[in-house]
Amino acid sequence: MDVVLFGPPGAGKGTQAKRLTDMLRIPQIATGDMMRSERASGSELGKRFDSFMSQGKLVPDAMVLELVEVRLRKDDAKNGAIFDGYPRTIPQAESLDGMLGKISRKIDRVVSMEVELDEQIQRITGRRTCLACGQVYHLIYNAPPANGRCGNCAGELVQRKDDTEEVVRKRHEEYLANTAPLLGYYGAKDLVVSVSGVGSLDDVTERIKKAIGV
Ligand code: AP5
Fold first, then answer.
1. What is the C-alpha to C-alpha distance for residues 149 and 83, in angstroms, rounded to an integer?
2. Which of 173, 140, 130, 155 lies closest to 14 in space, CA to CA?
3. 13, 36, 39, 123: the active-site residue
4. What is d(CA 108, CA 3) in angstroms, rounded to the nearest whole number?
5. How far is residue 156's CA from residue 126's CA, in Å, rounded to a whole number?
6. From the alpha carbon of 113, which atom of ligand 1 is closest?
7. For residues 64-81, b (16+ Cβ closer than 10 Å) or e, as one string?
8. I need a surface site. Which of 77, 81, 128, 190 has the fewest CB within 10 A?
9. Residue 45: its pLDDT value, please?
10. Which of 18, 31, 49 is the pocket-test mutation for ligand 1 (most atoms within 8 Å of CB)?
11. Are strands 109-114 and 192-196 parallel, antiparallel or unpaired?
């Protein structure tokens, strides 16, 4: 099964993708996470990613395509994937269709998670992420253990560089201009199911499970 978790910054895509990978035994393919890990390696490519990410701008399509092509070839993705934060432009969606088509697969469902801008800002400015395993927390809504370390691996929790209100607003503008039009692209293929992204993590998971029929 190949599923796109779609939605604006802070909709809860990463949080829900991690829950679904455990359930469905297919990997999360999150281009944002892949770019952050490249950046953390200190490579030249990572520095180029950072020049866009730190300003809330989208990374150019050609750079994203290469990342995903390599990731999709890995063995754990042979039965499907949960795409989180990708595709983000119509050319990215077209190239994903092409990549999947070559291996006789296609996107089965696009789950559009709906959350208002004020809520997105609250969520993102309170987000903390584990440096070691990527587990995502929120200081109020999904609080980490009292010792302030990751509950999975005891790793250090940090705030993402692009998680300031100013950058979130820029990311939201990019979403409206370049990513929201994908709803029309996938809508024309009758693949989109909209779910509210507001409520407890369990409630949102249940809505997504229903949307993808598991
Ligand atoms: P990326 O990392 O993909 O960020 P994003 O899409 O902006 O989404 P977020 O990770 O901010 O939010 P999310 O929806 O995953 O929410 P989360 O589950 O963490 O991209 C970052 C940057 O990389 C981009 O700006 C761009 O520069 C670049 N990039 C990445 N992919 C690209 C691509 N394909 N093309 C071009 N550029 C690309 O939840 C957020 C917070 O809310 C957490 O604290 C969580 O605990 C909390 N929360 C989650 N669910 C709930 C709930 N139900 N109730 C209350 N709180 C909740």
1. 27
2. 130
3. 13
4. 6
5. 16
6. 14
7. bbebbeebbeeeebeebb
8. 190
9. 94
10. 31
11. parallel
Ramachandran quadrant class, 148 (left: phi over 0; alpha: psi -120 to 50; beta: rest): left
Among the atoms of ligand 1, which is closest to the Cα of residue 163? 11
123 lines ligand 1 (CB under 6 A): yes
Residue-level pLDDT at 138: 95
Are the C-beta atoms of residues 96 and 83 closer than 8 Å to each other? yes
Q: Is 8 in the pocket of ligand 1 (CB under 6 A)?
A: no
Atom nearest to 11 CA in ligand 1: 14
Can you list the domains of the chain with their CATH numbers?
2-126+163-212 (3.40.50.300)
- Measure Cα distances from 85 to 35, 54, 154, 166 in Å: 11, 16, 26, 20
Distance CA 64, CA 92 (A): 8
Answer yes or no: pTM beyond 0.90: yes
**Type and span of the H or E element at 169:** helix 165-174
| Count of C-beta atoms within a 10 Å radius of residue 118 | 8
pLDDT on residue 134: 87
Q: Give 10-residue mean pLDDT values along the chain (214 residues).
A: 98 96 95 94 96 97 94 96 98 98 97 97 96 91 95 95 95 98 98 98 98 96
Ligand 1: does its nearest atom lie under 6 Å from the Cβ of 53? Answer: yes
